[in-house]
Design a protein that fits this description.
By secondary structure, this protein is mainly β. It has helices at 92-99, 125-128; strands spanning 10-16, 20-25, 28-42, 46-48, 53-58, 64-74, 79-89, 110-118, 131-139, 142-149. It is globular, with a radius of gyration of 15 Å.
C-alpha cells in the first residue's frame, strides 16, 4: 500500500529570477527560471545554492510542465542533489496572471511535483532511498514546496 507522510518532511523556499523566455517550439512555450538561493527546513536544514534552474514547458491550455535541478548544502556541510518533475495548472486567467509574475491565491493553483534527492553523505541515505511528492506555491519572486515522503 502506498501512503504519504502525514506531515511535511522538508520545506524548500527558493528565491527565483525573472524567467528567461525561449519562445514557442513544438507546440508550447519554453521558459527557464533561474534559482537564486533558498532555505531548507524540516528533517534537513540548509541552504539552496545558486545555480539551479526550473525549465518549463507551457502547453497551449496554460498547464505548465516543470523540471527543476538544484543543489542543497545542509547546515552540516553535506551536499544534496535535487531533481524534480512536476505540473502546475489553474484556470486560464489565473495561469495568465501567474505567468505574468502577478500574485495569485495559491488555492486556485494545482502545483505538484515528484522529487528525488541524491547524496553521498552516509547520514542522508534515508533521503536517497525515497521518493517525495511536493505541494508547491508560486509567489512572484519565490517558490515554496512542502515535501512528503511516499511510503
Amino acid at each position: 500500500m502506498i501512503t504519504l507522510s502525514a506531515e511535511s518532511w522538508i520545506r524548500i523556499a527558493v528565491e527565483v529570477a525573472p524567467p528567461q523566455l525561449f519562445g514557442a517550439a513544438e507546440g508550447f512555450e519554453r521558459r527557464c527560471v533561474p534559482i537564486l538561493r533558498g532555505t531548507v527546513t524540516g528533517r534537513v536544514n540548509g541552504t539552496v545554492l545558486p545555480g539551479g534552474a526550473d525549465w518549463q514547458r507551457i502547453l497551449p491550455g496554460g498547464t505548465t510542465e516543470l523540471e527543476a535541478h538544484y543543489a542543497i548544502c545542509t547546515d552540516a556541510g553535506e551536499m544534496i542533489e535535487v531533481s524534480s518533475r512536476g505540473v502546475r495548472s489553474a484556470a486560464p486567467e489565473t495561469m495568465r496572471k501567474l505567468l505574468d509574475g502577478e500574485a495569485v491565491d495559491p488555492a486556485l493553483v494545482y502545483f505538484r511535483t515528484a522529487v528525488r534527492m541524491t547524496s553521498s553523505a552516509a547520514g542522508l541515505q534515508y533521503l536517497t532511498s525515497r521518493l517525495f511528492v511536493g505541494a508547491g506555491t508560486r509567489e512572484p519572486a519565490r517558490v515554496l514546496i512542502d515535501l512528503h515522503a511516499v511510503e
